[in-house]
């Protein structure tokens, strides 16, 4: 399993989460097998997202989609503050 790990600051969790939920079908179609959304206990304006895929290529394609179609569009990414930090991870 491959994981796309994403971290970024947000301005409002409820606004951000509503936008995240709107992309549920897109995530499924892109091959996301499962996801986790977490926030640091000391920072309500920060999120850590992990999206699980079968393979690295699916994770790379979805990251490219996020970078070109979502994070560059304020309507698609309300609540996003700053640039996300990402990594593609695989089991050691």
Question: Could you characterize the architecture of this molecule?
Answer:
With 92 residues, the protein is of the alpha+beta class. The protein has one domain: Alpha-Beta Plaits (2-Layer Sandwich), CATH 3.30.70. The chain has three helices and four strands. A hairpin with a 7-residue loop joins strand 2 and strand 3. The chain is globular.
Low-confidence region ranges: none
Structural class: alpha+beta
Can you tell me the number of structural domains?
1
CATH class: Alpha Beta
Helix content: 25-40%
Total count of helical runs of at least 4 residues: 3
Structural features:
92 residues, 4 strands, single chain, four-stranded antiparallel beta sheet, alpha+beta, Alpha-Beta Plaits, globular
Task: Provide a compact summary of the structure.
Helix content is 34%, strand content 35%. By secondary structure, it is an alpha+beta fold.
